[in-house]
Amino acid sequence: MQLTDEEKRMLAGDFGSTVKRAMEVLVKLGEIHDAPYMVEITSAHIDGNIDKEHNQESIAFLEQLAADNIRVRTFTTLNTIGLDRLKYHELGFNDAHFENQFRLNKAFEGMGCLGVYSCTPYYASNLPRFGEHVAWSESSTPPFVNAVLGARTSREAGASALMAAITGRTPYYSYHVPHNRLGQALIKVDCPMRGIADYGLLGYYVGSRVKTSVPVFNGLSEPSRDELIYLGAAMATSGPVAMYHIPGVTPEARDLDEAFGSNEPELVIHVDRKALQEPLDYLNDMPVGPVEFVAMGCPHYSLRQIERLAGLLEGKRIHKDVTLWIHTSEPIRYMAQRLGFDKIIAKAGGLLTADICTICTPLEKLGFRTVVTDSVKQAFYCHLFNNFTTAVETMENVVNIAIAGVWEGKRYNGE
Amino acid sequence: MASKILAGRSISEGTVEGEAIVSRDPIVFNLGIDAETGVIVEKGHDLEGKSTKNKILVFPYGKGSTGGAWSIYRMGVKHTGPLAMVCQYSEVLTTVGAILGSIPVVDGFSEEQLTEIKTGDRIRVNGGKGTVEILAD
User: Fold this and answer.
1) What is the DSSP letter of A223?
2) Residues of B in contact with A50 (CB under 8 A)
3) A414 assigned to some structural domain
4) How far is B6 from chain A (nearest CA, A)?
5) Domain with A191 in it
6) Same domain, residue pair A303 and A377
7) Structural domain total, chain A
8) Which residue ranges make up each domain of chain B?
9) Between 3.30.930.10, 1.10.10.10, 3.40.1010.20, 3.50.30.10, what CATH number should domain B4-134 receive?
C-alpha cells in the first residue's frame, strides 16, 4: 500500500505502540482488499461499547488505551448502550447492574469520543456530507450513510472504527470505491409498502437473499427517511448489506441505469405480500395471551416517529400490566420534552428512554420473556440472546396491543 | 485418501491443526455465539447448540451486528472459541477481531470449495500462506 509520510511514521511507532498496532491492522485490512492507499476520515461511529459484549479482558484492553493517553483524531460518536444515564433507576435497574458499562463509557470518553450513545448519531451531531469518507460501525448505520446520505463507509466493526478513529485513516476499499457502490441485485417490489414494519420485513427478506450484493429496489414509491432507516437496519440484520439504491430516491441513482452502471443484475428477487409472510412466520411466535413488554425505537426513533406515536397515545392509557418503552437518543428526548411528547407518552403509561435499546439492556434482570414491537431488527435480536418470543406489528397495532394488554396472534396486514 | 490442499487468501496469521466444524449459514458473532463458551446460540442456525471451542470453524461469512469483532477478540484471548476460521469472505469484523485476538483466518473460497470440508475432518490452516489442508484419514 502507498502510505503518506505521516502514515509511515504511525506504522513505525513514532506515535506510540497503540497507534502502530492500529495502523498495522488497517494496513492488513487494506492489503486484504487490495486498497491502494489510505483515506483521511471526517468522522467515526463506534459500536461494540455495550457491557454485555465485553469481559474483563476486553474492558481492560480499552481502559489501557485511555490510560496510555490515546486520543481519537477525528470526530467520533459512540453507539447505544444498556444504560439510560438519567433514568436507569426509573427503569428498574441499580448501579451494580452497570459497573462494567460505567467503566466502558469512561474508557471511550477518555479517548475523546462523544457519548451520544445512539444508533442514529446523524440526528445528534454526526452528519457526514455527500461523498465524505467516514468509518462507521453499528450495522444499521452503513446503509444509511452510504445509500441515503451518499457519504462513504465500509461496514466497519466497532474495533476497526476505533482503529480508524485513533489514526484518522481508513483503507480506500469496500464502499469507499465508487465501483463497489454500484447495484448488483434487482429487487422488484410488487406490493405497496407502508410504514416502518413493512420496510423492516422487506429488508429482512432481501437481506437474507442478496448475500454480499448491492440491492437496487424497483417499485418503491417515496419512502420516508424513517422507512429507509428501518429498511437498511433490517437488511443489515439478516445479511451484511451496507449499500443499496432506490432509483429516484437515493442520491446516487436517478434511474436503474445509473444504479447498476456497468454491472448487469446478477440476481433478481420478486417481493410480494406473501414473501413478507416468511419473516413474520419466524418472528411472530409469541403465544396468544397477556402482553408484558412493548418496546419501540430500534433503530432509535426520530422526533417525527415520537410525534406520531404520541398522537396515537394521546388521551389513551396502556394496560396496567404492560411496560412500554420508546427508545431514542438523549438529544431527541430533550426535543421531545420541549414539544411535550414525553408527557403525553408518560400520561398514557409509557416511558421515553435515552441511550438504551431493548437489545442492549439487561432485560433478564427485569424478568421479561416476550416483546411486542414494530421493529424487525429488535425482534430478531430479542430471539437471539434474550431467548424471547416476539410479535412484530405496525406502530398503530403495537399501540392498540399495549392498550388491550393482550396479543391475539393477529395476522399482520401492514398499514 | 491423500490429503488435499485448498489455496485461499491470508487474513490472519498462524498455523493450526484441528477438527473442522462446518456451518452453511452465516454467523452473527455478536450475540449469535456465546463468547464465553464458543457455543452457537442463534435460534434456527444450522449449528445451534454446537460448540466451536478448540475446533476450526468453516462458514460462509459474518453477518449482523458489527460489535462482533470484540466477540472474536474475546474468544481469541480467552481460548473459548475456534482455533482458526475458514470462510468464503472474511468481512471487516471477522478480520479485525481475528487479528486482534490472534486467531488464524483464511478466506477466498467458493461455496463449492468449502463443501469439500466436512464436519469432523482433520484440517490444517496456514493463516500466513492462506491455505487449508484436508488431512488424510
Assistant:
1) -
2) 67
3) no
4) 18
5) 182-281
6) yes
7) 3
8) 4-134
9) 3.50.30.10
Helix (H, G, I), strand (E, B) or coil at A90: coil
Cell 406473501 locates to: A274
Domain boundary among A140, A163, A178: A178
Task: State whether A127 and A238 are in the same domain.
Answer: no
How far A270 CA sits from the closest chain B CA (Å)? 22
Q: What pLDDT score does A32 carry?
A: 87
Q: Give chain B positions within 8 Å (CB) of A385.
A: 31, 41
Looking at residue A384, its pLDDT comes to: 76
**Cα–Cα dist A64/A111, whole Å:** 10
> Residue ranges of chain B with pLDDT lower than 50?
none
For residue A134, name the pLDDT band (cuts at 50, 70, 90).
Answer: very high
Q: Do B69 and A58 lie within an 8 Å CB cutoff?
A: no
Nearest alpha carbon to residue A23 among A217, A165, A183, A126: A165
**What is the per-residue burial (b if ≥16 Cβ within 10 Å, else e) of A116-125?**
bbbbbbbbbe
Which residue of chain B comes nearest to A48, CA vs CA? B67
The whole-angstrom separation of Cα A207 and Cα A239 is 5
Query: How high is the ipTM of this complex?
Result: 0.79
Q: How far apart are CA A217 and CA A206, in angstroms?
A: 10
Based on the domain organization, do A307 and A334 belong to the same domain?
yes
Q: Which three cell numbers stand for residue A50?
A: 455495550
Q: Which residues of B are catalytic?
A: 65
A246 and A350, same domain (yes or no): no
A69 Cβ under 8 Å from any chain B Cβ: no
Residue A30 lies in a domain: yes
Closest listed residue to residue A371, CA positions, set A333, B41, A309, A363: A363
Does residue A246 share a domain with residue A209?
A: yes
**What is the identity of the amino acid at A93?**
F
Query: Across the A/B interface, how many CB contacts are shorter than 8 Å?
Result: 117
- Nearest by CB to A384, which of B28, B68, B69? B28
**Above 70 in pLDDT, residue A353?**
yes
Q: Does A317 touch chain B (CB under 8 A)?
A: no
Domain boundary (A178, A209, A235) is at A178
Please tell me the distance from the alpha carbon of residue A19 to that of residue A246, in angstroms, as a whole number.
39
Residue of B nearest to A383 (CA): B43
Contact A25 B92 (CB under 8 A): no
Q: How far is A25 from chain B (nearest CA, A)?
A: 7
**Residues A266, A342 share a domain:** no
**Is the overall model pTM greater than 0.95, yes or no?**
no
